[in-house]
Amino acid sequence: MGTKEELIHAVTELEEEKSYSLVKALLDEGVNPKEVIDMLRKGVEIVGERFNKKEYFLTELVMAGEIFQQSAKILEAVMKDDTKMSEKLGVVVVGTVKGDVHDIGKNIFVTLLQAAGFEVHDLGVDIDAEKFINKVKETKADIVAYSGLLTVALESMKQTTEALKTAGLRDKLKIIIGGLPVDEMWMKEAGADAYTDNAFNGVKIVTKWLKGG
Q: What is d(CA 136, CA 119) in angstroms, rounded to the nearest whole number?
């Protein structure tokens, strides 16, 4: 098994130190950092698939995200400031809406989005409509993702979508909502374009949107 295959395997088996050693070894061999990122993404994707099949659990998904993030830092350190890691698929603004402070699902979604090649702006938790609007204007976001676990979150999602309409931004972007209680009713009430209770599936949805699928 070559070093490239070893790296994908190390990520999928959650071998943290081995993954970092292989990233450094590939760089020493002169492999393009963009290729290394693609290998890391492949590993995270496999972990996500295993999570979907219930072969892996939340802990493993968080660990894969950590391996990806730390490996990306190693790669960034050796690249020139003017060289981008890779072409960005699109820009996503993410936040847990006003009145809710749950963030485990959101954080996993953010990591999987980054691994998939998106530029992600994570606003955090208990975020009001104004903060979403300001960040969308600043980043020219393609997608907004609301997260929430509490029933109070639905009202905040509706208010945020209304505020995006008032600001003239709603028609320029797609909205996805996520969280355990979300369903089609929540999606319609919140004025969103899609919903998911699974971070991995959420990434598939937004990727399809931006690839025109």
A: 12
